[in-house]
Write a structure and sequence with these properties.
Length: about 120
Amino acid sequence: MARIKGVDIPDNKRIEIAMTYIYGIGRSLSNQILKDAKVDINKRAGSLDTDELNRIREQVDKYMIEGDLRREVSMNIKTKMEINSYQGVRHKKGLPVRGQRTNRNAKTRKGKGKTIANKKK
């Protein structure tokens, strides 16, 4: 199994798909990285040689992914909560942040159930 940025990528999948196992890399960024590294997107991850893996690692180092990206996202959320923005308040209450309805859905959030004021049953 190849390791990129501390993440094991599966050998049996195409490298285009296998790279999406890294937090912060989706299909389009995966294709861009492989294009810049001059690696065939249809190749299986297990059949890559060390030279190709090193070229991929060099390209991946240019982007903020994995731990750095997770830290950045959590800091952004904490900042919103500290300044009491609308989204921050929704994060604090454990409610949907991006405008979703709450009277018919949002019951599958993890953790202890939150009561919504004046909600008719």
